[in-house]
TrEMBL record, chain A:
Domain of life: Bacteria
SUPFAM superfamilies noted in UniProt: EF-G C-terminal domain-like (SSF54980), P-loop containing nucleoside triphosphate hydrolases (SSF52540), Translation proteins (SSF50447)
Annotated InterPro entries: EF-4, EFG_III/V, EFG_V-like, EFTu-like_2, G_TR_CS, LepA_C_sf, LepA_CTD, LepA_IV
GO cellular component: plasma membrane
Subcellular localization: Cell membrane
Source organism of the structure: Alsobacter soli
Keyword DNA-binding: no
Protein name: Elongation factor 4
Automatic annotation (TrEMBL), chain B:
Protein name, per record: Heme chaperone HemW
A GO cellular-component term linked to this record: cytoplasm
PROSITE patterns the record matches: RADICAL_SAM
Localization of this protein: Cytoplasm
Major subcellular location class: cytoplasm
Organism name: Alsobacter soli
Amino acid sequence: MSEHPISNIRNFSIVAHIDHGKSTLADRLIQATGGLSEREMVDQVLDSMEIERERGITIKAQTVRLEYKAKDGQTYVLNLMDTPGHVDFAYEVSRSLAACEGSLLVVDASQGVEAQTLANVYHALDANHEIVPVLNKIDLPAAEPDRIKAQIEEVIGLDASDAVPISAKTGLGIDLVLEAIVQKLPPPKGDETAPLKALLVDSWYDAYLGVVVLVRIIDGTLKKGADITMMGTGARYEVDRIGVFRPKMTDVEKLGPGEVGYITAQIKQVADTRVGDTITETRRQTPAALPGFKPAQPVVFCGLFPVDAADFEDLRAAMGKLRLNDASFSYEMESSAALGFGFRCGFLGLLHLEIIQERLEREFNLDLIATAPSVVYRIHMKTGEEIELHNPADMPDVMKIEEIHEPWIRATILTPDEYLGGILKLCQDRRGAQIDLNYVGKRAMVVYDLPLNEVVFDFYDRLKSISKGYASFDYTITDYRAGDLVKMSILVNAEPVDALSMLVHRTRAEMRGRAMCEKLKELIPQHLFQIPIQAAIGGKIIARETISALRKDVTAKCYGGDVSRKRKLLDKQKEGKKRMRQFGRVEIPQEAFIAALKMDS
Amino acid sequence: MTPMSAQLPFDAGFGVYIHWPFCASKCPYCDFNSHVRHAPVDEARYVAAFRREIAHQAELAPGRTVSTIFLGGGTPSLMRPGTVGAILDAVAANWAVAPDVEVTLEANPTSVEAARLRGYRAAGVNRVSLGVQAMNDRDLVALGRLHSAEEAMAAVKVAASVFDRYSFDLIYARPDQTPGAWAAELKEAIGHAAEHLSLYQLTIEPGTMFERLRDAGKLVVPDADAARALYETTREVCEAHGLPAYEISNHARPGAECRHNLVYWRYGEYAGVGPGAHARLATATGRLALSTELVPENWLAKVEAEGHGVTEVERLSPESQGDEFLLMGLRLVEGVDQARYEALAGRTLDPRRIDDLARERLVERTPDGKLRVTREGFPVLDAIVADLAA
C-alpha cells in the first residue's frame, strides 16, 4: 500500500478487562472511519465466533484496517489488532502484541483496574508498547474518572493525566481516541529493501479459502506469487492471495513493512502454521528469525468421552475438524472402564478446555463427559528418567518414583477488601504462598504462588462465590516444583474406578476423598447388597461411605392383567442396565460419573 | 422355535378371566380399569358381547378344560346374579368345564351386595373375594370406601354362611400405621377369615388421587424401613395363625390357595374377556398375549362390530416369556422350575447371579431344582427379578 508512507501507519491493540468495553470501542472506531456502513454493523464485529460473542471474549486474534483522515490533514492507516484476552492464550497475546507498537488501555471509569487488565498491560509493556489510557463509560453516574486515573498511575505506574475520556456506547470521545492513536503511538520501523521478515500472528481455517494466515510485515515486501518459507517448521508455500481486512477481506497486490494483512497459500491445516513463526522469502532468507517463537504447549488435560458410546466416531471427526482451526489443542485416543472409548485432550488452560468442550457439544451436537482436569506432572524416576504424566491412570509404580514435580503459577487477584479474608484463606488452603499484598484505594491486590493442580479444581468458582463475583483473577505459569503428591483411587465395592482416580497433594487427599465418597453415595443407586465406597492412597483407606442395601422394592399386586405392563417395565430396566457401567457387581449409571466429575459446582 | 410340548407342562390349568369394569365410585388408590357410570348399565347388551368374546377366544384356544373362572373388576358384585349366570353359561358353552372348577367373584362388602351373594351361588359362583380393605371406619373413609367396618364384617358373615370358600382383602402400610396397630387389626381380621386373605401394601400408583395427595404433601406413607417392618409383621401374624403366605400378598391355609391366581403365577394359560382384559394363550403359532379395548363403551361397540374386543396381539418372544415367567413365578413361595425357564426363554439363568443372590440370602435353590426367593428376598423381589432377567 505504497500510497501511505510507513510513517502514516499505526498498529495498535486494545487492552481491557472483560466488560470494560473493548469490543464496543472497536466497533465505534470501525464506524467512525467508515470501515462498515451502519447497516453492515453487527455488534462487536471482531468477535465473530458465536462463543466469543456470547462470552464477550476473543479467542482468535483478528485485525481490521482503518483509514483515518487526521486533523493534520494526512490520511493514516490504523491497524487494530484484537487480541485474545485470556491467560490461557498468553502466548497468542504476546505474539499479537509483538505485531503492534502501541496499545489503548481501556478501563471502566467506575470499576477501575482489574487483574486481567493488569496482566495484559504488563504483556503490552513487555512488548515495548506506547500506551494510551482510555477511560470508558464516562457517561455513567457511577463514573469516577479522577479516582480511576489515580489508580492507573498507582497500580500500573502509567501517566494517566492525558487519559482519553469516552463512552464507547454513545460514541462520545471516539474522535479523541483516533487523534491520540495518531499523535501518541509511534509508527512502525522497517526496511523495505531488506529480505522479507514477517511475523505469523495467527491463522485459522476458512471453509472456502483453506488456511488463512494473519501476518505483520517487519522488513521487506510480500507479493502475490512469492515463494515463502516458514522458518520454524521449514515448510515452503507459494502465496496465492494477499489482502487486508477492512474489515471485509480485500485483496491487495503486496504488503510492505509495518503493514498487517492476510495471505493464503494452499496450506492444508492450521497445525502446519505456528503462531509466532517467521515467514521469509525462500530464495532470499532473512538472516535472523524473530525471537520468542515457541510451539503451543498444553497445560491442562482431561478425558472427553461421548455419553453415548455410538457417538465415538462422530467425536473423533469433530475433534479433527476443530483441530483444523486450533492447533493448540491436542487429543489422543483413550479407553476407560467407566466411560468407554474417548480421547485424552490437552488444552492451553481451563477456559480453552471449556471452549473446546462447548464447541464440540454445540457445533457438532455431541453429549460429552469430561473427566476432572489434570495438569502435566513431571515424574522423576529412580532410574533418572523423567516422565510427563497427563493422566493419573498412567501413574507408574510408586516404588520406582523418586519425586513428582507439578506446575506452579503466579496468580494476581484484585478484590474489594471486604472479601480479602476469605480469598486469603482460599489461597492458603490451596497450598498457596503469599508473594505480595497491597491496597489500591478500597481494593486489595494479592499475589500468590499456587500449584496449578489446586487451581484447576474449582478454584475459580470458589473465588467467584467468596467475592460475590467481584474478585478478578489472572495467572502465569512460572515453574515446576517437587510436591508430596499421591495418587488417590476411588474404590466402589473394592473395585477401583479408573475415571475417578486423581493426583492430589497428601495434605489435601482426605478432604478430596471424603467429598468424592459422599457425592458417589448420593449418586449410585441402592443395590441388593451393601456397597462400600472408599478413597484410598495405595492400600490405605482415607475416606469411606456405605450405600446401604435396598430395603424394599416389590409390587404388591400382580395378576394376569398386570404382566404385560410389568414386563415392559422390566424391559426398560434391562435397557437401563445395559447403559450402566459394571464395576464388579455394582452397576453405576453413567449419569453418576457425569455428576461425580462435576464436583466443582 | 421351542417345541410346543416343552412349553406345556400345564398342570397350571386353564383359567378364564371376566372383567366387569364398573364401580359405584372410584377409590383414590385404584389404578385399575374401572369406570363410574351414572346411567344404568345395559347388562343384557354386555352379556351378549361377553358371549361373543368368549367364543372368539375359544376359537383361538379350543379344546381346553376350564379349571378356574374369575369375575373381577371393577365391581362384579354390581351385576345382577342372572347376568353372572349367563356369562358362566357362555363359558361352559365354549369349553369343557372341570367338575371341581373354582369360580370366584369379587364383591364389595356393602349390605346391598351381600344380599346378592345367594343369587351368585345359585348362578354357579363358589368362592367370593371381598374388598374389606380396613377394619376401622376412620381408615375406610381415608381409603374412599363406601362401607363401614361393621357392614363389612356383616357381609363377611353372610359370605361365610353362603360359600365354603371366601377370602377378603386388606390394605396395609397406611399413613401412620404402626406394626403394633397393624398386628392387632390383622388378628381381628383373621378371626373373621376362613381360609384365605389378600394383604396388600398400599402402593401409590401413577395417575391416582393418592398420587396427587402425596405429591402435594398431604399424604405421607411409611418409608421403606417402616413398610418392611409392616411386611414382616404380616408374615409373622399370618404364619402364627395358620395362614402362611404362598405369594407376596396372599395367605392361605395350605390347600386353600386361590387356584385361579395360581394359574397366573405358575404362568399357565388363561383367557381374558371384557374391557381391558388380558389373556395368555398357547396357540399353534406360539404363546400369545392378548389385550382388549379399555373403555367399556368402545369395547362394546368393537365386539358388536367385529366379534371381539382385542386391540393387541403379541406373539411373545422366548425372552419375553422367560421374563414373564420370572416376574410371576418368583412371587410364589414355592419358587420356579429352572428347567421350565430354560424351555421358555431358551437360555439358562446365570448361575453366578444366582450364587451372588444366594450369598446375600435373597434366593435359594431347592433340592428338586427349583429356585425360590427367601423371606428376606421378598421385600426386594422386583430388584431380584431385574437382576436375574438382565
